[in-house]
Amino acid sequence: MRGSRFAPDRGLTTRMVGTMFLIGLLYVVFVGVLVALLRGSWPVVLVLAGAVFVAQFWFSDRIAAFGMGAREVTREQAPELHGAVDRLCALADMPKPRVAIADSDVPNAFATGRNQRNAVVCATTGLLRRLEPEELEGVLAHELSHVAHRDVAVMTVASFLGVLAGIVTRIGLWGGLRRAGGRDQNTAVLLVLIPLISAVVYVISFLLTRMLSRYRELSADRAAALLTGRPSALASALTKVTGQMARIPTRDLRQAEPFNAFYFVPAFSKESLTQLLDSHPSLEQRLEQLGRIAARLGGA
Hints:
Layout: H1 10-37, H2 42-58, H3 60-67, E1 70-72, H4 79-92, E2 98-102, E3 109-112, E4 120-124, H5 125-130, H6 133-149, H7 151-159, H8 161-180, H9 185-228, H10 231-245, H11 250-256, H12 283-299
Parallel strand pairs: 2-4
Antiparallel strand pairs: 1-2, 3-4
């Protein structure tokens, strides 16, 4: 891949392009339908849709970091974390992102940002306390690969489409009903159609992001293992973090769940263990892939 030594992944690139095309098409159709239904409020719908999309894209790193409770730290405040990121960025030949820590006992890490210059890599205090240095480097390499492959930007845009659909729907519906006076038959039709359209948009965007998310996690595991040459360290971190999740209070897991698509390991509360469309591949899939990479590296 241009700009870093992380192993390129054509499958990931193809999936990202396809997902962004479908998400963009869905977004255009959604706004177009709202404009057609809310004829009197189309300027509001267009201006709001454009403004929210631009703001979300340009400030996605700050929005995500704020939502997850991340605070940027200096080298003096977190020397070991900065040292690990420095070594990995030198090894990968990529710009160093901002480094942050989230005060949470949930052991996890994430990366966010629309490009390498605006990227943030964050680890929770729970992760830093539980992992050995080589395990932490494996996790950080996984997150840096998301930045290098630019899939974190795609996930940021795709993940917020459902939220955006809800906001535009509320404003557009409110404006349309206000102009219509809330009394005629057309108003009743709008009350049924617009929430239904919004729900369809959310479901489709949810399915698209889940499919991309599962593949990108396997891609990041593979790229991190090949870069560091220590797939066993990443496998150990995966096993340890997944096992520790069962000991985290349910309330903390529920607070972390909305950001699962960005995390190294999903934070699932007991009630959500049965969900069919996970944001991450199973632990068995990830360990099996790392085992194959270890065998290949050992043979080489």
